[in-house]
């Protein structure tokens, strides 16, 4: 578990980047922090691994106070915190396997063991056959998978992700987020994930916090947040319910979006109209269905 309490960061130029942040990332969960540009998201992450010195407040990782640590103790704590970045930050002169092995090299692990672990980790992220490739020979999604394997090399208790999918297209983003979820489930890894995209929160997170001007203004499990009528987060997380006309030269079609809890509409869509396509996604503990309906006149929203 990661516990952030009363965290403040004022830069020497007077900018207050964090203005009293309280945030808990329960062990084994993925918590998303979302917020617009300049709102302090990266500063928050950089305080957690102490690349920035907080001005005030405390950060505890599994009961140990990171904010107090110095020297060798801090270095040991940092090894327990993996990080992935928007620009991957791989060394171009090294192969994928050598990149993954880097944290092990720094920790003094022997060559054979490093190599064995690196290949095992590459296998875990679906790149078992690309160990000898250099970053320039890999796609963006593959580079981020190498980044994830490298972050896992020192068996971290916490993974920090700062806009790790922002440089990737939608499909690749989803496959990387799927991988994070799988690793989270298999290894029980705790993840603090920073993003400015609601789609990322929706696809990957158990909980979400909205950061605005250095403060957490709203937070909670996804299922709870989407149920709050006044929630700014819910507005972003939920698709707009109702009908959207889909222009087509052959048929009049409408895209109907509804919460599966809305049984009346669900039944009407199922009974009264020809459904050409439908998909259901889970958002927190709600299920939202999108249905492409051919005879929309029979559906009343
Ligand atoms: N080293 C620094 N010195 C002075 N001000 C800084 C420094 N780093 C960040 N800031 C300021 O702190 C505020 C928060 O920056 P931060 O990078 O944490 O935002 P962010 O939410 O990550 O933004 P983005 O979504 O664009 O990445 C901004 O006003 C930024 O200009
Ligand atoms: Mg940032």
- In the CATH scheme, the class of the largest domain would be Alpha Beta
CATH homologous superfamily descriptor of the largest domain: P-loop containing nucleotide triphosphate hydrolases
How do the SSEs run, as a string of H and E?
Answer: EEEHEEHEHHHEHEHEEHHEEHEE
**Percentage of helical residues?**
25-40%
Number of domains: 2
Provide the spatial order of strands within the biggest beta sheet. 6-7-8-3-9-10
Content of β-strand: 25-35%
Dominant shape: globular
| Rg computed from alpha carbons, rounded to a whole number of angstroms | 22 Å
The fold-level CATH name of the largest domain is: Rossmann fold
Subunit structure: Homodimer. Forms a membrane-associated complex with FtsX.
Keywords: Amino-acid transport, ATP-binding, Cell membrane, Membrane, Nucleotide-binding, Translocase, Transport
Family: Belongs to the ABC transporter superfamily.
Protein name: D-methionine transport system ATP-binding protein
